[in-house]
Amino acid sequence: MSGSGSRETSWERVATWYDGWVGDHGSVYHRELAIPAVMDLLRPAEGESVLDLGGGQGVLAPYLVEAGARVTVVDASARLIASAKHRHARLRGAKFIVGDARHLAAVAGLDPGAHDAATFLLSIQDMDSLDGVVRGLDWALAPTARVVLLMTHPAFRQPRHSGWGFDEGRKLTYRRIDSYLSEMAVPMKSLGGGLPTRSFHRPISTYVNALADAGFGVDAMHEIADLPPNRRPGKGTRGDARGNAEIPIFLGMRAVRR
Fold first, then answer.
1. CA angle (71 as vertex; 59, 36 as ends), nearest 5
2. DSSP string, 157-195
3. pLDDT of residue 197
4. CA–CA separation, 236 vs 255, rounded Å?
5. In this structure, what is the dihedral angle of CA atoms 198, 30, 237, 156, given to the nearest 10 degrees?
6. CB of 99 within 8 A of CB of 12?
7. Fewer beta carbons within 10 angstroms: which end of the chain, N or C?
8. Closest CA to 105 of 74, 136, 145
9. What is the pLDDT, as a whole number, of residue 230?
10. Which domains, and CATH codes, for the chain?
11. How far apart are CA 124 and CA 59, in angstroms?
12. Distance, CA of 166 to CA of 57 (rounded, Å)
């Protein structure tokens, strides 16, 4: 995941844990929900150049290459990029670069206006500032281009500011939202014994407006329900089957510039 400087957001310190969790093919959430949504929104064409930002160990790269695209994975974590090169050493049409998504013009190996599309697979909420990321997109993408974001749903799944509740009177499971419009940096739980990473919550309008400032208009969205309880990893389940089926866990968004 991408970033450095005053608001350090690189996942370098938890790279070993994250690499083990994602592996070659991604977690069950990657395989069954996140990657299919990104591919459906992106619909890469033969020969297109795709920039995968915050791409970690390159879990999306094989799908893009299989679809006929060329992919450049950029991530601020040198350990994750090293893992990507190791895991995908035989993958032709993909390259992996250490770089900051907020300063793409300074990343060696990238050229201005050279890419047809950009993807953020569960990475945009780990990046700050958003304005810097969008400026980088404006620099790196062609005049006609598209961007696909896949994130935990900002309206329903804010870390530490949302959760399940149960109304005894109505016998109804509901989703409680403590905050939405306020942008905030939220420390996550420690992963793999390392210092906690941070998630940057923003309302949906912030993403739409930031992209619009660079000439991108949102033309498609997916709101994705959680996996059924019997397919969900982990020991416990939160919410109930109906609540998880009705209240989305992920938001996918496509923005185009013509």
1. 45
2. --TTTEEEEEETTTTEEEEEES-SSS-EEEEPPP-TTS-
3. 74
4. 36
5. 50
6. no
7. C
8. 136
9. 76
10. 12-153+182-239+251-257 (3.40.50.150)
11. 16
12. 39
- One-letter amino acid identity for 112? P
Going by C-beta distance under 8 Å and a sequence separation of 6 or more, which residues neighbour residue 2? Answer: 9, 10, 53, 54, 74, 75, 76, 99, 100, 101, 102, 123, 126, 127, 133
Amino acid identity of 5?
Answer: G
Mean pLDDT split into 10-residue runs, the chain, 258 residues: 45 62 76 96 97 94 97 93 92 95 95 98 94 96 98 93 92 92 82 69 97 97 90 65 89 97
DSSP strands (E only) in the chain: 49-53, 70-75, 94-98, 115-121, 141-152, 162-167, 172-177, 184-187, 198-201, 217-224, 250-257
What is the spatial distance between Cα 86 and Cα 73, in angstroms, rounded to a whole number?
13
CA neighbor of 221 nearest in space, from 150, 152, 127 = 150
